[in-house]
Amino acid sequence: MKRVLVTGVTGQIGYYVAERLSAAGDEVYGLERQSTLGRAGPTGALPYQPVAGDLLDEYSLLTVIDKIQPEEVYNFAAQSFIPESWVQPILTAQYTGLGVQRLLEALRRVAPRCRFLQAGSSELFAGGAVSPQSEETPIVPRNPYGVAKAFAFHTVRIYREQYGLHAVNAIFYTNESPRRSPAFLARKVSQAVAEIRAGKRTHLALGNLESRRDWGYTFDYADAAVRILRHEQPEDFVIATGESRSVEELVQTAFQLAGLDFATHVQLDPALVRPAESLLLVGDARKAARLLGWRPSVSFTGLMEILLANDFRRLGLAFPEDVAR
After folding, report:
1. Active-site residues: which are they?
2. Over the stretch 144-188, which tens digit does the pLDDT of each residue have?
3. Which CATH number fits the domain 3-175+216-239, given the four candidates 3.40.50.720, 3.30.870.10, 3.40.50.920, 3.10.290.10?
4. pLDDT of residue 273
5. Is the separation of the CB atoms in 32 and 50 below 8 Å?
6. CA nearest to 126, candidates 139, 108, 144
7. Mean pLDDT of 266-271
8. What pLDDT was estimated at residue 195?
9. Disulfide engineering: 7 pairs with which of 77, 118, 125, 255, CB 3.0-4.6 Å?
10. d(CA 116, CA 107)
């Protein structure tokens, strides 16, 4: 049994890591801001013991880590909404970048043998010219969120090399789950499709249908996080499906699974159109397959089935599992 601290535990991947480790018998603590402390999970219970702390407050991190003396820390806390990073670039830098350094400093001072995992992002590569991306791809961010993630990535590497901490980066590509906020595309689509099926709305407004992503299932990525941190050597890993899918493919798949006509219900809204990405973000996770035995277990269609089934249940609808897949 290990003592584990998970930050960002009220989100999706942090929650699933806590759930997985708790089920395995580990003693799991979840770092929450005081305003969310102890908020109930989907079933009214939490797979972790909540503790108060904030990545903006180094003293709170020192206090929590000194008290718990964790053997592992998984950091998923961040300001992770890219458009918001342009509105609040300083706050994004404080949480997503400097927050990681505060955590590492706390570990260096009071728990130097603790293992640390930092959740990275494919946005590290968004301003580059290489696709697909691997652990060897140059880091060239193109927005404040990516810049903060780049700071965190290099800080982890420096603390590993300079201080000998077992600190690693997991470079996660886009991943989705029922815990994902509808502010993000895949959940926006699955929620809208369920509401259309329930007669609560008639249309879904979208922008650029040609944008492409490497979409995976968050539960698989939580499994990867544990494998990375428990790998004997501290190494960085790209975690991705290696498959590129367009927004149009995602939307068509969702409507087809629900037995609805895509063309009837989707409207293009020019106000939602963003400039096309200059680089295709698709990950090369062969290193994770070779050294960790990790591979995604859920297909693109399977992912959309999971999201839709959740939103159908939420509205009291039966998911049409007999629909052609």
Report:
1. 121, 123, 145
2. 999 999 999 999 999 999 999 999 999 999 999 999 999 999 999
3. 3.40.50.720
4. 72
5. yes
6. 139
7. 86
8. 96
9. 77
10. 9
